[in-house]
């Protein structure tokens, strides 16, 4: 795995963790606002990006499993 991909994975995981914590806190206080909706809409594309980067990282340049 390249350093660039590793940094991208770390960045995505941190963003997902932060958004998840924020959503949990807002839901705990039973807050349903446009902010909650926006965070939920942001979370799913981040998860898809994480899956894509993880998949690319699991494959070397020749297309073989790492």
Structural class: mainly alpha
Q: For the CA atoms, what is the radius of gyration? A: 15 Å
Q: Which sheet architecture does the biggest sheet show? A: none
Give the helix proportion (percent range).
Answer: over 70%
Could you report the average pLDDT, rounded to the nearest whole number? 87
User: What is the count of β-strands?
Assistant: 0
CA-based shape: elongated
List keywords for this structure.
66 residues; mainly alpha; 76% helix
Task: Describe the protein in words.
This protein is mainly alpha-helical and 66 residues long. It has a domain at 1-29. It is 76% helix and 0% strand. It contains two helices and no strands. α1 packs antiparallel against α2. The radius of gyration is 15 Å and the shape is elongated. The protein starts with a helix and ends in a 9-residue tail after the last helix.
Indicate the topology.
Elements: H1 3-28, H2 34-57
Brief summary of the model shown:
With 66 residues, the protein is mainly α.
């Amino acid at each position: 795995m390249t350093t660039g991909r590793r940094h991208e994975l770390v960045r995505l995981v941190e963003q997902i963790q932060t958004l998840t914590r924020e959503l949990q806190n807002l839901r705990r206080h039973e807050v349903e606002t446009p902010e909650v909706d926006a965070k939920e809409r942001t979370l799913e594309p981040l998860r898809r990006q994480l899956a894509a980067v993880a998949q690319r990282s699991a494959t070397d340049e020749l297309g073989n499993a790492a």
